[in-house]
Structure to design on (956 residues):
């Protein structure tokens, strides 16, 4: 028996998993169009490698990340690239993003494939590169590129490799069904990852509400060193930090990663993808999606190509559009609502809930917080949600941050139990967002200050250098003067006094000439300023501005008059003033236009 | 198709505040029953009167504050405040004394601070402390003797008349000092055995009071079992009181014994129903333990060396003052952190 630990808090929401586990995984079929977002992973978006109109083969790389973190996107089937355009993508913001749209040709023709079963003979780097080339990013939720995760920092050794099969969120059964039906592939993928990392311990954590999956995995693990840990059902046991605590008794340090304590977590779906990438040379082009909720007649799990529109899956599952009230992507605890069924399945899409109004009713009106502490009792991160709420609501973000706001994993357990039905997680998201904005602004301000200080330092330096040069010149001049005087004295000793006077007169003459020259250049310099062309342009601009302002004022005045507002007087005065301004501007322009002639006259007469 | 847009979580299963408060009321019923059984109808009449005044003044003030009256009345919190005062006040306290206590609690201690959830002090105890200081005679001479409902205590009509009559006719036959009061004053000149000879102490600890306290203990344990309150405040409260009693008052010929402290006066009502008011109590588990212990210790100090026979109200209010301070130093250790982040932002970070 594997020793288990417990994590703080947690809740036991209604599981609602039985609806979607009654039938085996079904094929979602071929949709009319596949919409492939260029960013389905954490990191940089991929850049298209294909042209519109091009025919592509199944498994062909369509887009890749040239520099930075990220993984490629592949064609789930053969077909024609119809467009590369902005489309709705799965994101809580509901915004559009760049997607490659592929029209399947129905032939499902593969590119050339080179399966490798003897991966143990390869370099680990080669295997990691192949995982990257297969476009694999974490399929549990975040979508972090798997090849990077499998390469922990050099000074960190992964002792325990955990395969996360907890699937603690209600409704979702994608991992459950994957483990039931694809246990061999799960274990094959786990073995590849274990070969890369060489951990001392390999353990699969599964919640005890999935007896079939546990049985299947246990059978597949026979004869291996892999532990199957059956953990008590408690949300959120599938949270990475919580599962690590359950299986190792260790905690991921604040602001650290699991590798810091010698642990790594991978999702069962990711394991299957790794196995397929290696043993079948099949990139990540499909995944298991749970389609469930009371608004579909046939809830269940579907193996769907990446890019399949949700609409297609809902139709397959027999959606009743009249009953459909809330469409949730992900689970009922952490998923987000969709505005459209046009969004595609991505590498991280594990569940779609088509819920009726009775199933996921609107929350009752928010009441005041009475600090009952139910939220703190269920918080799996051992935070004080009631205090975080208080500080988030009153925008005392510094205090919220001090109470570890950023350790919140947004699992929703606090909101789930709140007697006052306060949408706590929403408050935390708001506070986090505001703090991030503040930090960004602080950074900007710091940079601006640094720039300003650097400029000041530079100017001071230049001033000093100038001063230094001036002193240098003064010294040189003084020396020259001294030399001259010495020469003059010598001359005086030898020559007569009249020469001295003549020299003085010459000097005066020289100075006068210099002054004259200076005046002349000064005049030359100021001459271009008298150039009248820009003047006219500026005046014209002034005039148009004044006119438009007058129009606005006039409009406002009319409106104010219509509404009999009390600022009519003020506006009337403003309109009159602007009238004058326009008149003045017109006059000025007129004068300026006549001026050139005069100017040229002046110049010629000069 | 327009779908509902909501932020997660989409599933909820909460026990609404109104039901939490209803459970508090239900859990207090055994105690009320014991009070009626041993001390007559006084407490029941007080409870009904106090709840009526509480709900009435809450409604009036919500109207003045232009708040949705029905929405807030439905949370049952005003009723609980009324109930707690009705249970704590002397059985024959005149109607206007209890009325002033309740109006103070609801209007000054709760609504003027911003209503539910915004009050730094326990509303019921603010009301209680006010009338205790303002009307000391009415608050000390109106305790019923534990003769029991079936032993010649005044009947319902008499009690009603006593509470609501304008004239304060002598009621000596029916009232007496509380056991805590009696013990404190008599022990100065008598031995423990002599003091306990008085019939008010009955065969055991304090006739009637012991059963009332045990009934509140039972109701309180129900609240802990239902996870409406956690064990920390009552444990700190009773622990603090017990430790003080054992440390300073082990000689029964000098000080009231531990059993009397635990099972007389408002001990159990205070530990499980009053000190546990979440709005004005400390936040974290550790903070709640300290908060409860502080109340228990203060109760012992005031009961033993102070001028008042009981001290739940003052102790709770004094610790209410200390809550921000306690909270400041007792945040829990968050997952992944070595130690709790005490203090204020920017200092003592761990």
């Amino acid at each position: 028996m594997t020793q288990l630990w417990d994590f703080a808090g947690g809740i036991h929401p209604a599981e609602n998993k039985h609806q979607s586990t009654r039938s085996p995984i079904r094929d979602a079929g071929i949709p009319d169009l596949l919409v492939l977002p260029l960013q389905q992973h954490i990191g940089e978006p991929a850049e298209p490698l294909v042209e519109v109109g091009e025919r592509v083969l199944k498994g062909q790389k369509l887009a890749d990340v040239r520099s930075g973190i990220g993984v490629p996107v592949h064609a789930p089937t053969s077909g024609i690239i119809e467009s590369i355009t902005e489309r709705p993508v799965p994101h809580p913001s509901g915004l559009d993003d760049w997607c490659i749209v592929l029209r399947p040709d129905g032939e499902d023709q593969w590119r050339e494939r080179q399966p490798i079963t003897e991966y143990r003979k390869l370099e680990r780097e080669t295997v990691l590169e192949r995982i990257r080339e297969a476009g694999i990013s974490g399929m549990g939720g975040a979508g972090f590129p798997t090849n990077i995760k499998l390469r922990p920092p050099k000074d960190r050794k992964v002792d325990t490799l955990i395969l996360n099969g907890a699937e603690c969120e209600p409704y979702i059964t994608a991992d459950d069904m994957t483990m039931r039906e694809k246990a061999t592939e799960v274990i094959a993928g786990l073995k590849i990852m274990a070969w890369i990392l060489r951990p001392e311990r390999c353990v699969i954590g599964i919640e005890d509400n999935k007896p079939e999956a546990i049985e299947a995995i246990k059978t597949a693990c026979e004869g291996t060193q892999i532990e199957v840990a059956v953990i008590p059902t408690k949300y959120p046991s599938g949270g990475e930090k919580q599962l690590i605590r359950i299986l190792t008794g260790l905690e991921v340090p604040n602001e650290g990663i699991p590798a810091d304590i010698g642990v790594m977590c991978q999702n069962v779906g990711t394991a299957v993808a790794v196995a397929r990438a290696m043993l079948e040379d099949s990139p990540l082009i499909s995944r298991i999606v749970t389609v469930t909720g009371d608004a579909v007649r046939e809830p269940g799990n579907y193996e769907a190509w990446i890019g399949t529109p949700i609409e297609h899956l809902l139709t397959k599952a027999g959606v009743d559009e009249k009953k459909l009230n809330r469409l949730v992507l992900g689970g009922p605890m952490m998923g987000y609502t969709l505005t459209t069924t046009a969004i595609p399945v991505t590498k991280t899409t594990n569940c779609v809930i088509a819920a009726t109004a009775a199933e996921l009713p609107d929350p009752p009106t928010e009441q005041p917080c009475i600090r009952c502490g139910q939220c703190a009792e269920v918080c799996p991160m051992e935070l004080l949600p009631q205090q975080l709420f208080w500080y988030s609501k009153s925008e005392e973000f510094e205090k919220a941050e001090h109470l570890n706001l950023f350790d919140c994993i947004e699992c929703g357990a606090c909101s789930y139990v709140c007697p006052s039905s306060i949408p706590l997680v929403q408050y935390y998201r708001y506070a986090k967002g505001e703090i991030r904005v503040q930090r960004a602004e602080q950074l900007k301000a710091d940079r601006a200050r640094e720039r300003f200080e650097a400029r000041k330092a530079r100017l001071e330096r230049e001033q000093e250098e100038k001063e230094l040069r001036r002193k240098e010149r003064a010294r040189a001049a003084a020396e020259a003067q001294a030399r001259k005087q010495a020469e003059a004295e010598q001359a005086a000793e030898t020559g007569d006094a009249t020469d001295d006077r003549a020299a003085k007169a010459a000097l005066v003459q020289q100075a006068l000439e210099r002054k004259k020259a200076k005046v002349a250049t000064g005049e030359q310099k100021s001459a271009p300023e008298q150039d009248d062309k820009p003047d006219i342009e500026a005046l014209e601009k002034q005039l148009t501005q004044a006119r438009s302002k007058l129009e606005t004022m006039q409009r406002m005045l009319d409106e104010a008059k219509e509404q009999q507002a009390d600022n009519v007087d003020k506006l009337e005065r403003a309109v009159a003033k602007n009238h004058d301004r326009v008149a003045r501007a017109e006059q000025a322009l007129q004068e300026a236009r006549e001026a050139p002639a005069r100017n040229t006259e002046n110049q010629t007469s000069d | 198709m327009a779908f509902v847009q909501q932020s997660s979580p989409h599933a909820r299963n909460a026990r609404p505040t109104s039901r939490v408060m209803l459970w508090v009321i239900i859990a207090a019923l055994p105690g009320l029953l014991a009070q009626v059984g041993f001390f007559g109808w006084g407490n029941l009449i007080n409870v009904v009167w106090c709840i009526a005044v509480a709900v009435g003044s809450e409604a009036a003030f919500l109207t003045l504050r232009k708040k949705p009256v029905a929405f807030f009345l439905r949370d049952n919190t005003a009723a609980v405040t009324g109930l707690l005062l009705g249970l704590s006040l002397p059985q024959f306290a005149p109607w206007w004394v209890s009325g002033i206590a309740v109006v103070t609690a609801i209007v000054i201690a709760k609504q003027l601070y911003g209503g539910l959830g915004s009050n730094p002090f326990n509303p019921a105890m603010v009301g209680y402390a006010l009338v205790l200081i303002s009307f000391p005679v009415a608050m000390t001479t109106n305790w019923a003797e534990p003769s029991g409902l079936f032993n010649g205590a005044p009947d319902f009509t008499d009690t009603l008349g006593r509470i609501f009559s304008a004239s304060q006719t002598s009621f000596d036959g029916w009232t007496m000092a509380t056991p805590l009061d009696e013990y404190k004053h008599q022990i100065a000149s008598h031995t423990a055995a002599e003091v306990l000879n008085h019939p008010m102490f009955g065969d055991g600890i304090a006739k009637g009071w012991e059963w009332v306290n045990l009934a509140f203990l039972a109701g309180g344990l129900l609240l802990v079992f239902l996870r409406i309150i956690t064990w920390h405040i009552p444990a700190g409260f009773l622990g603090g009181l017990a430790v003080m009693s054992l440390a300073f008052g082990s000689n029964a010929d000098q000080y009231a014994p531990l059993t009397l402290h635990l099972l007389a006066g408002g001990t159990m009502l205070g530990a499980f129903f009053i000190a546990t008011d979440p709005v004005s109590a400390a936040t974290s588990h550790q903070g709640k333990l300290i908060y409860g212990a502080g109340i228990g210790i203060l109760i012992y100090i005031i009961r033993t060396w102070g001028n008042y026979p009981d001290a739940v109200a003052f102790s709770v209010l004094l610790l209410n003052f200390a809550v921000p301070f306690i909270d400041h130093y007792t945040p829990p250790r968050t997952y992944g952190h070595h130690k709790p982040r005490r203090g204020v932002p920017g200092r003592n970070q761990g």
Chain B has a mean pLDDT of 89. Residues 92 and 142 of chain B are 5 Å apart (CA to CA).
